[in-house]
Specification:
Layout: H1 2-16, H2 18-33, H3 40-65, H4 73-89, H5 94-117, H6 123-142, E1 147-148, H7 153-163, E2 165-166, E3 169-170, H8 171-189, H9 191-201, H10 203-208, H11 213-239, E4 241-242, H12 250-260, H13 272-291, H14 296-317
Length: 321
């Protein structure tokens, strides 16, 4: 009996940490196939490239935990990145422009959340429309052309957020782990986090138990928008300009990271740590394929196969009702 219990517990442990195990296997295979993969410079490059997707994905995790979806985060990144570039070019210091940019992203998320929560419109439809509209605003705002952050001390300070280093480690990596710790604390150690899980687990029961479901829904879309805006800041700072077409398909990579990390698309189940690992899986996979000289077209196929496998494993491991 004890042996059966131990085997069941071990199997459950493997299932719960499948994304982390997949990351370990992927790193080991990549290291075996390329001597340059485990070099410090390349590992830092992987983390830096992963940071933008990870930041977006951690915000999207909140939405998916409530059984929602947000397809607008890539467009929000583009528009808020343009806002950040304009404010920086005008001489506004980063300590003012960055919070302003994040607030604008949160506001865009709130608008989507209001339609989902109070308009009772499916999240897929609302955020699909938002993606189109916000992308249009980004193109109008930039006139279809890049917006440079300019030069001088203000621009240099802003650039540090995307291209700078501290203690030999790129600043975006610090920002990624800061967002991870913040989201982890909110989701797993606050009443709000418990309510997010409750809404995703069973919205009707959550409503009957006194949880303000509409407020929770609006809040999670605001969080997703804020994270997308921060990612927009990092990308704009790194490039030195805001690109009108920035963030194209980023929403798909973010959702992929969340799903690979074990968060259920049905809501109510998932972890921020899993999302971070899922983003790293995608980052390592892209980097390894680049090192091996694999065409970007085949990279898309490989990424799609990994996502499909993650969804299949999730559906197989989900307890039957």
């Amino acid at each position: 009996m004890n042996a059966l219990t131990s085997n069941a517990s071990f199997t459950r442990l493997l299932i719960d940490n499948k994304a982390f195990l997949a990351l370990i296997v992927l790193v080991a295979v990549s290291a075996a196939m390329s001597d340059s993969f485990l070099t410090p410079d390349n590992l830092l490059n992987v983390l830096r490239q992963t940071s933008i997707n990870a930041i977006i994905a951690m915000g999207v995790t909140f939405v998916i935990l409530t059984a929602g979806i947000d397809l607008s985060v890539g467009a929000v990144l583009a528009l808020t990145g343009a806002f950040a570039a304009s404010m920086t070019a005008s001489g506004l210091a980063p300590w003012l422009s960055v919070p302003g940019t994040i607030a604008s992203g949160a506001l865009l998320g709130v608008i989507s959340g209001l339609f989902v929560a109070y308009g009772r419109i499916q999240a897929f439809v609302v955020t699909l429309v938002a993606m189109t509209v916000v992308r249009g605003f980004a193109l109008v705002y930039t006139d279809g052309r890049p917006i440079s952050i300019g030069g001088g001390e203000v621009a240099d300070a802003f650039w540090q957020l995307g291209g700078g280093y501290w203690l030999g480690i790129p600043i975006p990596i610090y920002l990624m782990f800061f967002v991870f710790v913040l989201c982890w604390g909110v989701l797993h150690h606050t009443r709000f986090g418990r309510h997010v899980y409750a809404v995703g687990g069973n919205e009707q029961v959550a409503r009957l138990s006194g949880i303000d479901v509409n407020r929770i829904k609006v809040s999670v879309y605001a969080i997703a928008g804020a994270c997308a805006a921060l990612a927009g800041v990092v990308l704009t700072a790194r490039l030195g300009s805001a690109q009108p077409n920035a963030g194209m398909t980023y929403e798909l990579d973010a959702i992929a990271a969340v799903v690979i990390g074990g968060t259920s698309l049905m809501g109510g189940r998932g972890r921020i740590f899993g999302t971070l690992v899922g983003a790293l899986v995608i980052g390592v996979l892209n980097n390894a394929l680049n090192i091996m000289g694999v065409s970007s077209y085949f990279q898309m196929i490989a990424k799609g196969a990994v996502i499909l496998l993650a969804v299949l494993i999730d559906s197989r491991s989900r307890p039957s009702s």
